[in-house]
Amino acid sequence: MKTAPGPDTDHLLEFVRQGNQAAREHVLARHRDRLRKMVAFHMDRRLAARFDPSDVVQDALAEADCRLDEYVRRPPLPFYPWLRQIAWDRLIELRRRHLRAAKRSVSREELDFFDLPDDSAVLLAGRLLDLGSTPSRQVLRVELRARVQAALALLPARDREVLVLRHLEQLSTAEIAAVLGIGARAVKSRHLRALQRLRGLLGDDFAEEIT
Fold first, then answer.
1. Helix (H, G, I), strand (E, B) or coil at 103
2. Which of 58, 77, 124, 146 can pair with 82 through a Cys bridge, CB separation 3.0 to 4.6 Å?
3. How far apart, in whole angstroms, are the C-alpha atoms of residue 88 and residue 72?
4. What is the CA radius of gyration of the chain?
5. Domains of the chain
6. What is the pLDDT of residue 5?
């Protein structure tokens, strides 16, 4: 017999609104793994040598818990993008404090965060490819992944940003729209434009391999 699915996030938030402590704990915990992956994707290798992504997420969820009552009264964003922004801000602050970056605006730092660590760039390149599983295609995969990784580094930051959110973090269109502060149609347009530019950088011989 299948287990009945538990309450979704919206229902849990309604229970939180009613003062249910168990729902409060559940709605924060259910997004922990997703937040941890996001932080790990973006964490500079120098920070990763000193901190675990789980530490960043733990701090972010503690802050979210303190702000949750305010959130359920007047949600500024859908729930996961709101949690993600708290974790994102924690990651930027960690970078600022421990890497002693030169003084820059927060917007500049955020764009820099889409210059991915090597492992994340390789993973993103792999997710953008559609090469099948035959041995000959596996050989091509290694070569093409390297070419895609190099091409991603040449894309404008706005294009790389939407590809990271869609294919690496695997956010929905609505979630990307909330993160970027634009409409769903603009997300789809920006995503299509980014894929077209990536294909252009790869050339005709390889462009068709991009999904």
1. coil
2. 77
3. 20
4. 19
5. 9-104 (1.10.1740.10), 114-207 (1.10.10.10)
6. 45
Q: Name the residue with tokens 């404090």.
A: 97
How buried is residue 8: exposed, middle or buried, by Cβ count under 10 Å (0-12/13-18/19+)? exposed
Number of Cβ within 10 Å of residue 96's Cβ equals 14
Own/partner pairs, 93-102, CB within 8 angstroms, 24+ separation? 94/47, 94/51, 94/56, 95/44, 95/47, 98/46, 98/47, 98/50, 98/51, 99/44, 99/46, 99/47
Query: pTM for the whole thing?
Result: 0.83
Quick check: 57 and 39 in contact, CB under 8 A? yes
129 secondary structure, DSSP code? B
Q: How does DSSP assign 3-28, residue by residue?
A: PPP---HHHHHHHHHTT-HHHHHHHH
| Helix, coil or strand: residue 101 | coil
Condensed to tens digits (0 to 9), the pLDDT of residues 15-45 reads 999 999 999 999 999 999 999 999 999 998 8
Look up residue 88 and give its two tokens.
Answer: 């994102």
E-assigned strand segments in the chain: none
